[in-house]
Amino acid sequence: MTGWLVVAGLGPGDAGLITPEVTLALAQATDVIGYFPYVARVMPRDGLTLHASDNRVELDRAALALDLVRAGGRVVVVSSGDPGVFAMASAVFEALEARPADHALDIRILPGITAMLAAAARAGAPLGHDFCAINLSDNLKPWELVEARVRAAAKADFAMAFYNPRSASRPHQFVRTLEVLLEECGAARLITFARAVTTPDEHIHTVTLGEATPEMADMRTVVIVGNSATRRVGRFVYTPRRAE
To answer: In this structure, is residue 211 part of a structural domain?
Structure first.
């Protein structure tokens, strides 16, 4: 039996946004591995073993996946959104790098719709010109680097999408992020808070930086800040395709 490993994105939440390619891989899998809430989105069935684990054990999940594939398993490692955006694809390759004997395994990365793109679509087109994505968590990098990247992106007039903006353990960091954005972008810049996009709990709210408060974001929120040309058109927000 020849095993394979697929690292798949389950999209932002709505089952209708899971790609047919990912659906087929899940139907063929013998094992699904991932963080508890993501594995819970996979329907149990005969012949499928679900391996759910806590957050911050990405390398353990990746190692388990490689072990199961070597034993002949058809393994899907699931992430929300896209697996290559602050998710499990990098963790799998990090584990693979330390295991030269596994470099020839059958491994595929299947893309998914990111929370950032789903949020932008709900808001209108705030990422219509050059943009960047920044993870505001400092679990895997120092806060000083996060702040430097936020400031550099703001100075360069990128539209910006922020993942993991504010948790209970580090609420002060999003306070500082808003301070930096105000300093570099000004109070009139538009900022969109997109919480739980494509789920029944979805809430989309656009204000100016001068009106924004830290409490508008939590760990289920993607925050999108426009560039200097981003504007409202009716109930939508968009960034023109031409630089001004």
So the answer is: yes
| Two tokens, residue 83 | 């697996």
* Rounded Cα distance, 32 and 142, in Å: 32
CA 18 – CA 135 distance, rounded (Å): 23
CATH number at residue 30: 3.40.1010.10
Phi, psi of 171 (to 5 degrees): -65, -25
pLDDT of residue 1: 56
What's the whole-number mean pLDDT along residues 121-127? 97
Instruction: Count structural domains, the chain.
Output: 2
Angstrom distance (rounded) from CA 10 to CA 30: 17
**124 and 193 in a common domain:** yes
- Cβ proximity of 105 and 76 under 8 Å: no
Helix axes 88-97, 58-70, angle to 10 degrees: 60
